[in-house]
Design a protein that fits this description.
This protein has six helices and ten strands. It is an alpha/beta fold and 244 residues long. Helix 1 crosses helix 4.
Length: 244
């Protein structure tokens, strides 16, 4: 609890990690989605939220940097190669940006990590999540969505012979309406007290809270099927904030 800072006028930082080396959807950060680079949606949502003193993109790519600056973000440095591989936790990328921008630790009491792979999250989502973060008293908060028609309590593993083994054996025959909801993290908007992030080096600290958002604005693009779903949702928006 001591990590939280609740002064309304506190300076806030948005960090948008956007590396060049996507494998499943090549060049996805700069690929056109609905007529503009995917990255631009997240920059636009961050700026329209009017919450941040600085909106910064951390990237290893000059091409991504140019697109980010054209969309209205800052790119004050290029990320080092050792933070742009397939294995580095994204929390460390955000921490690297924080330590570059606020080396003394006295500039930004809290920050948001906004993944560009969640282009359907809107400015109001960012504002609402921030309010929940301030009210929670937690040192970190991640965005989550409910599992929908694919009930996770009925999950099963399948071996090479096709035989199924339930993950939750005790719930195999339970009715869906009798089971409690489960939540899936989405990278749309994660908040942290910067003192906690510096100490723990991750958003996944003890006591982190989950801010629930609609699944159709929390879509996280990891593969081509996700990309097609995002295109469909952009073309036929649903919900109260239809445009990211």
């Amino acid at each position: 609890m001591a990590d939280r800072v609740v002064v309304h006028e506190e300076p806030r930082l948005a960090v948008i990690p956007a590396r060049a080396g996507s494998k499943r959807v090549p060049r996805k950060n700069v690929r056109l989605l609905g007529g503009q680079p995917m990255l631009a949606y997240t920059i636009d949502a961050a700026r329209r939220s009017e919450l941040f003193d600085r909106v910064v993109v951390s990237t290893d790519s000059p091409e991504i940097a140019a697109i980010a600056e054209a969309a209205g973000a800052e790119v004050p440095f290029l990320r080092s190669a050792d933070l742009a591989d397939d294995f580095t936790p994204v929390s460390l990328v955000t921490l690297d940006a924080l330590e570059r921008l606020d080396p003394a630790g006295d500039r930004f009491p809290c920050l948001a990590q906004l993944m560009p792979t969640c282009p359907l999250r809107g400015a109001e989502d960012i504002r609402s999540s921030y309010q929940a973060f301030r009210n929670s008293g937690a040192a970190s908060q991640i965005s989550v969505t409910r599992f929908g028609w694919q009930n996770p309590w009925w999950a099963a593993e399948r071996d090479s012979a096709g035989v199924l083994q339930p993950v939750f054996q005790q719930f195999v025959q339970a009715r869906g309406q009798d089971l409690p909801p489960l939540f899936c993290p989405t990278g749309a908007v994660w908040w942290a007290a910067t003192s906690m992030l510096r100490r723990e080096r991750t958003f996944h600290a003890a006591g982190r809270t989950g801010w629930e958002m609609p699944w159709y604005r929390g879509v996280d693009i990891d593969g081509e099927d996700d990309w097609r779903l995002a295109e469909i949702l952009l073309a036929a928006p649903v919900g109260s904030e239809s445009r990211p």
